[in-house]
Amino acid sequence: MRTVRLEGRSFSVTDDPDRVIGGFLSYALSLNRLSGRSPAEEFAERFSPDGSEMVVPDTFVAYRATESDDTVPELWEYTAEDFDRMELWVLVLFQWHPLPDNRAVIEGPELRHLLNEALALVV
To answer: pLDDT (tens digit, 9 = 90+) per residue, 14-73?
Structure first.
């Protein structure tokens, strides 16, 4: 499982060479500025197994992948049965990243683990 640490104002995540997951954590932790809700409450709603997506226009998208026909080639290796038993999230960072280095696929439990780790670092 990956780990996260705070470096200045940015998050650094192990096994995240393109810094997409670290960028996602920064945006996710800033959601409370838009919604006025606590990050823990926001995370529970948005990133639970049945959660909604996160969209920061022209900046970032995080969504639950439900089939391999998704536009992300990293998902093409998964079968329909994988999507039934696995919770896969796609993270796409639009700023500063050329394709295909702007996206990452991560399993839900690890995503929530990293969100909690990042939250603990800023509280």
So the answer is: 999 989 999 999 988 888 777 888 888 889 889 999 888 888 888 889 999 888 776 678
Over the stretch 71-120, which tens digit does the pLDDT of each residue have? 678 888 888 888 889 999 999 988 766 666 788 999 999 999 999 999 99
Using an 8 Å Cβ cutoff, are 75 and 66 in contact?
A: no
Three-state SS for 44? helix
Sheet holding 103-107, edge to edge: 54-56, 60-65, 88-93, 103-107
Q: Which of 1, 25, 31 is nearest to 15 (CA)?
A: 1
Burial of residue 33, with CB atoms counted within 10 A of its CB: 0-12 exposed, 13-18 middle, 19 or more buried: exposed
pTM of the predicted protein model:
0.89
The HSE-up count of residue 25 (CA atoms within 13 Å, CB side) is: 30
Q: Nearest to residue 114, comparing CAs of 26, 9, 41?
A: 26
CA angle 65, 62, 18 (to 5 degrees): 105
CA angle, corner 116, sides to 110 and 120, nearest 5? 145
